[in-house]
UniProtKB/TrEMBL annotation:
Keyword Iron in record: yes
Protein known as: ABC transporter ATP-binding protein
UniProt-listed GO biological process terms: quaternary ammonium group transport
Record Pfam families: ABC_tran (PF00005), TOBE_2 (PF08402)
Keyword Amino-acid biosynthesis found: no
Length: 354
């Protein structure tokens, strides 16, 4: 069980500041997901931790060891870190067994260890003599994981290892990988640009943008209390509204909703599951019209357009556009064109008061 600490790490490639004063603690035995748009510095950060690159400044520590701090630099093979890259990770000319055993050439009991590792990741021993191209994508990624596990690292770095797999397989392989790493107590960092994967896999999520770490927290914390609108949208559908708050109620274009914020103008966020729709009724209510919907089994992902009414507060602006998303139970029928009345449930998040 090993904690990883990064303090003020920066890395520049020519004119690109790939990492800008990044500080991060990954608690011992925990799983952290790093999310962020392409080019935000996720791979650069993993490469610094693995020792494939040297930071321009900053400190990296693992347990009681300093990996680099300006003077010290521990080379990759002495770091006790496993790394699984996005794809093309296996040596194509080597068998499955030789791939897995690559880092333990002189270890006694090597063959038994290879068989044990393959068993852990669910690859039958009779596939040991195959070459990587004779395996499916999911099997290749599991062999890559077994290879990374061979030297029993304290920390595992996974750089979008599931992104080449199709949806069903991806969930299965991710769950299996999570179980194997969890059972071994390995501190894990998973880079992904799939927000659902980040929220479901990790104990902690860190959001990167333009080389900076903009927010770290539990999945629930980041989903419900994002630091800014960009982060909010990155972690799922978000309805971002201007509001005037009086006595704990935010008055918005879509009606009133509870908030924990002081009175005055604020910017708030709702998640789609906080929007309830019902057939439009004649009483004064916030109105909308269903624009489109997509069936997702348990619910319809329903796109709704706000419809101004004479009684409504039309002086508010819906900053995400005049359309927004609601989740509607699968049994309800609101086809496109339906006029609906809208209620807001739960309490809204207020930006700028984290
Ligand atoms: P991500 O993994 O989030 O997509 P990267 O860490 O790969 O982002 O890249 C961050 C930025 O650093 C990008 O602008 C990328 O072009 C740049 N970069 C990364 N590695 C190198 C390199 N070896 N040489 C030059 N620029 C690089
Ligand atoms: Mg990357």
């Amino acid at each position: 069980m090993t904690e990883l600490r990064i303090q003020n790490a920066s890395k520049r490639y020519g004119s690109t500041l790939a990492l800008n004063e990044v500080s991060l603690v990954v608690p011992s035995g925990s799983r952290m997901a790093i999310v962020g748009p392409s080019g935000s510095g996720k791979t650069s950060l993993l490469r610094l931790i693995a020792g494939f690159e040297t930071p321009d400044s900053g400190l990296i520590e693992m347990g009681s060891n300093t990996l680099c701090d300006g003077g010290t630099f521990v080379p990759p093979h002495r770091r006790d870190v496993g790394y699984v890259a996005q794809e093309g990770a296996l040596f194509p000319h080597m068998s499955v067994a030789d791939n897995v055993g690559f880092g333990i050439t002189h270890t006694p009991g090597r063959t038994e260890r290879i068989i044990e590792l393959l068993q852990q990741v669910g690859i039958p021993a009779d596939m040991m003599t195959r070459r990587p191209h004779q395996l499916s994508g999911g099997q290749q990624q599991r062999v890559a994981l077994a290879r990374a596990m061979a030297r029993s690292p304290s920390i595992m770095l996974l750089d979008e290892p599931f992104s080449a797999l199709d949806a069903g397989l991806r969930d299965a392989v991710r769950d299996m990988v999570g179980a194997v790493l969890g059972a071994a107590g390995i501190t894990t960092i998973l880079v992904t640009h799939d927000q659902a994967e980040a929220l479901s896999f990790a104990d902690y999520v860190a959001v990167m943008r333009d080389g900076r770490l903009v927010q770290t927290g539990s999945p629930q914390d980041l989903y419900l209390h994002p630091a800014d609108p960009q982060t909010a949208r990155f972690l799922g559908d978000a309805i971002i509204l201007r509001a005037v708050v009086t006595d704990g109620i935010a008055h918005t274009l879509l009606g009133p909703v509870a908030v924990a914020a002081k009175s005055g103008p604020q910017t708030i966020m709702l998640r789609p599951e906080q929007i309830r729709i019902r057939p439009a009724d004649p009483s004064p209510s916030t109105r909308g019209r269903v624009v489109s919907r997509r069936y997702e089994g348990a619910a319809w992902r329903t796109v709704i357009e706000h419809v101004p009414t004479k009684t409504g507060r039309d002086d508010f602006v819906l900053e995400t556009a005049s359309v927004f998303v609601a989740w509607v139970p699968g049994s309800d029928a609101f086809p496109p064109g339906t006029e609906v009345s809208i209620d807001l449930v739960g309490s809204a998040h207020v930006f700028g008061k984290n």
